[in-house]
Amino acid sequence: MRVLLISVLFFVLVTPGYAAEPGKATATVKVSAPSFIALNVADIDREVAWFQTYFAVEIKSTTNLPGGRGTIKLLQAGPLMVELLSLHGSIAPRADTPDTSPMMVKGHVKAGVFVANATKTFSELQQAGAPLRGRLVEDKVFKTLVFQVEDPEGNIIQLFERQH
User: Fold this and answer.
1) Where are the beta strands (DSSP E) in the chain?
2) Domain residues for 73?
3) How confident is the model at residue 153 (pLDDT cuts 50, 70, 90)?
């Protein structure tokens, strides 16, 4: 019993991105420009909890598609809108399915949003245990500070701050 308890506690403590109770943000990304992200996900409730934790979104609407085809949830926090789709029958991308509608393919996506202060946001997410990918870097070509965070399904959210 003790081994099981220690194993569960270890898993909870080391699993990236789940340090905060879902919906209880320990760091909040403050989006500074209109942004839209749409993701087809396997576990819509887990994804909603992740966006609530790190982006402080609210659920604006939930639509259950006719015939049990799936669910769509629209989330919003200020200028950020997130559309989460959980469509039954969606598949992972494979080379042998070229005729499949892109909307029915689950996969790794990279989306980007602008934030007012990338350095502060990076630090807060790092302290909150968010699953950061890489480090904060300065992109001199596009005059931005940029870093990435990964959602529970492996999608990459790239966060930018414009530098003048």
Assistant:
1) 35-40, 58-64, 70-77, 80-87, 110-114, 132-139, 144-150, 156-162
2) 27-88+106-162
3) confident
Pairing of strands 132-139, 156-162: unpaired
* Position 25 pLDDT exceeds 80: no
Token code pair at residue 111 = 């989306």
Q: What are 68-100's pLDDT values in tens digits?
A: 899 999 999 999 999 999 988 876 655 555 555
* Residue 83 resides in a domain: yes
| Average pLDDT of the residues in 125-129 | 93
Where residue 80 sits, what CATH number does that domain have?
3.10.180.10
- Residue 65 inside a domain? The answer is yes
Query: DSSP of 88-108, one letter per residue?
Result: TT-B---TT-TTS-GGGB---
Mean pLDDT across the stretch 126-130?
Answer: 93
Is residue 94 a part of any domain in this protein?
Answer: no
Number of domains observed in the structure of the chain: 1
Strand, coil or helix: 120 = helix
Q: Indicate whether 22 belongs to any domain.
A: no
DSSP H or E run through 153: none
